[in-house]
Design a protein that fits this description.
The complex is a heterodimer of chains A (268) and B (307). Chain A is an all-alpha fold. Chain A has helices at 2-5, 10-25, 27-30, 32-48, 66-97, 100-105, 111-142, 153-177, 185-197, 208-214, 218-232, 236-266, and strands at 57-59, 62-64. A two-stranded antiparallel ribbon of chain A has the order 1-2. In chain A, a hairpin with a 2-residue loop joins β1 and β2 (62-64). In chain A, α4 packs across α7 (111-142) and α8 runs antiparallel to α11 (218-232). Chain A is globular, with a radius of gyration of 19 Å. With 307 residues, chain B is α/β, with parallel strands linked by helices. Chain B has eleven helices and 14 strands. In chain B, the strands form three sheets. Chain B has a six-stranded mixed beta sheet, with helices on both faces. A four-stranded antiparallel beta sheet of chain B has the order 2-1-4-5, with helices on one face. In chain B, α3 crosses α4 (115-125), α3 packs parallel to α5 (141-153) and α5 (141-153) packs parallel to α6 (171-186). The longest helix of chain B has 16 residues, at 171-186. Classes of the chains: A mainly alpha (268), B alpha/beta (307). At the A-B interface, α2 and α6 of A face α2 and α3 of B.
Chain lengths: 268, 307
């Protein structure tokens, strides 16, 4: 409870404020990836790969153009990857090389605030990123490249924020465990990329084994939930599954992060 | 000083790290306007004690009081009164010198009043104004230390913790840091300082607490600590001279045990009475007599650990 309350304490906001200030200092480079990535992916997957699937993809009994299928998946994948990478590399660099955490911990900020600050920052950054991707998708729709239910785009924002918080909690767990930055390859290749592939973000999961595994994958429910919203105006089933998985992740991973990082950072 | 209540006091601090007892029942007291030097060889528990004092680590046992109040019940309020300069530079490399001070101020509540003016004042006082717009990595070692200390003061704390503040600095930069510390003491701050440099401890500290193997080995003014732990004089003589067996027998007979051996010389801490007795026992022996210093104390404490 003590740890949960820290999420709304001023110290966690001060940590987020610090990261935001750094981000805004570098705004001209910070805003490039969320603008360019969806354009690149839409071109590569949508126009490139999509050209081989002129009849579209079967999704929930109806045919959907590949670019329309990919666009919500792109939002989900961006949520997953941005949150994970920020809490893996960004947090690790601040913890290990920049010693930002150590400096913060000599003030009124305590470890639980550093942990929540990192999670909330990763979630805020991810949400901003996804919002920009959403704007790019809107532009694509305006020029006739996509046909999405854009009225549901604002609903995506809070969903992305909560999902990114849980993904960031997972990333921080690895940050606490990996001995050096070179060891980041282990969680990336053993956990992050497999979860990314078994998620129906860029292609449907036709194989029964993959489909079975994906049930426990929050990214799959996020992708299908957003797809439901943006293609059919309803993603309730998957979003309910997502909510349950995210609640479990946050309940388990945040206390685990605090315990592991207490040992790692404080040596206690 | 004795009439004033202590700013900071700790009683019976205990800390185990990785199953090892690192701090074992440490007591210490620091008043406002006083520099408390925390001394001891590597592994004596100085940094761990300091980290408990400024709330980075929690104590397994013992109590820390600030102006008489138990800090564990109001840790955040206590930490508002503290400034900490860690041994390693922990300034924020993403920000300039000025921004480092501003961002440090954002980590305290109640918010420090008039932050901009306070930052200007610190930049001026620590001779950092010229570098205000530079990144800290562009600063020399001495100026980086100044930034670390300035950052620890941005919220006007009443206690300052300095963990080996001059390690790695050239003599000129060390003296500059000493001047700053003296000025802060004159401002009424309570300062707890750890250092490996004995001259630094002797010049800066009003009171010393000497740690050895996690325990307080001595406490008091530098002079009284030296007197208690070493005696009034140190006799220095060649360790391999022909009188070695006789001197060793004399030391045994006086219960003084093994002498300190440094660069082929024996350093024998003796009281005035023991010195007179030694001179009487070895009238033909050539040796040097000098007052004890903190280096002797440090070696005395360190050698059993490094043996």
């Amino acid at each position: 409870m003590h740890g949960l309350r820290a999420a709304i304490e001023w110290q966690s906001r001060a940590v987020v404020g610090r990261h935001l200030r750094v981000y805004l200092k570098n705004w001209h480079t910070s805003f490039l990836p969320p603008v360019l990535e969806p354009i690149t992916l839409l071109l590569a997957f949508g126009l490139g790969l999509g050209a081989y699937m002129s009849s579209g993809i079967e999704w929930h009994g109806r045919s959907v153009g590949y670019m329309n299928f990919v666009a919500p998946g792109m939002l989900a994948y961006a949520t997953f990857m941005t949150a994970i990478f920020q809490s893996l590399f960004g947090a690790f660099i601040r913890m290990r090389y920049q010693r930002t955490w150590e400096g913060q911990l000599t003030t009124q900020i305590e470890l639980r605030h550093v942990v929540w600050g990192e999670i909330l920052w990763a979630a805020l950054l991810t949400t901003t990123y996804v919002a920009i991707v959403g704007l790019v998708l809107s532009v694509c729709q305006a020029v006739g490249l996509l046909q999405l239910e854009l009225a549901f785009l604002p609903v995506v924002i809070p969903i992305v924020f909560v999902a990114a918080s849980a993904f960031a909690a997972l990333g921080l767990c690895f940050t606490a465990l990996v001995p050096t930055i070179d060891h980041m390859n282990l969680p990336i290749f053993l956990v992050v990329l497999p979860l990314g592939f078994v998620s129906a973000t860029y292609f449907p999961l036709g194989h029964p084994v993959l489909a079975a595994i994906s049930i426990a994958n929050p990214l799959y429910h996020l992708a299908e939930g957003l797809r439901g919203l943006l293609l059919a105006g309803d993603g309730t089933g998957h979003l309910a599954g997502l909510a349950a998985l995210l609640a479990v992740m946050l309940a388990v991973l945040v206390p685990l992060d605090m315990r592991l990082l207490r040992k790692r950072v404080l040596g206690d | 000083m004795s009439g004033m209540p202590p700013l900071l006091e700790a009683h019976g601090l205990v800390k185990r790290l990785g199953g090892r007892l690192v701090v074992d029942g440490v007591d210490l007291v620091c008043h406002g306007g006083q520099v408390l030097g925390l001394l001891g060889p590597n592994g004596a528990g100085k940094t761990t004690t300091l980290r408990m004092l400024y709330g980075f680590l929690s104590a397994d046992a013992g109590v820390i009081r600030f102006e008489g109040a138990d800090v564990s019940r109001q840790l955040s309020r206590f930490k508002r009164q503290l400034g900490v300069c860690t041994q390693e530079d922990t300034f924020d490399g993403d920000f300039t010198v000025r921004e480092n001070l501003e961002i440090a101020a954002s980590y305290f509540r109640p918010r420090p009043p008039a932050v901009g003016r306070r930052v200007d004042e610190l930049l001026e006082r620590f001779a950092l104004a010229t570098y205000a717009g530079d990144k800290p990595e562009a600063l020399s070692g001495g100026f980086r230390r100044r930034l670390m200390i300035a950052r620890a003061l941005v919220h006007r704390p009443r206690m300052l913790f300095l963990d080996e503040p001059t390690t790695g600095l050239d003599p000129q930069a060390r003296v500059a840091v000493w001047d700053l510390v003296n000025g802060l003491r004159a401002d009424g701050l309570g300062i707890v300082l750890t250092t490996h440099y004995m001259d630094e401890a002797e010049r800066l500290s009003d009171v010393l607490t000497v740690l050895a193997q996690g325990k307080v080995a001595a406490h008091g003014t530098p002079k009284s600590v030296l007197g208690d732990m070493l005696g009034e004089h140190v006799v220095v003589l060649p360790a391999d001279g022909p009188s070695r067996p006789a001197v060793a027998t004399w030391l045994d007979a006086h219960g003084l045990g093994e002498p300190l051996t440094v660069l082929g010389a024996w350093h024998l801490p003796l009281s005035g009475e023991q010195l007179a007795d030694f001179a009487h026992a070895f009238p033909a022996l050539r040796y040097e007599v000098r007052p004890p210093n903190l280096d002797d104390l440090f070696l005395k404490l360190a050698l059993p650990c490094t043996a």
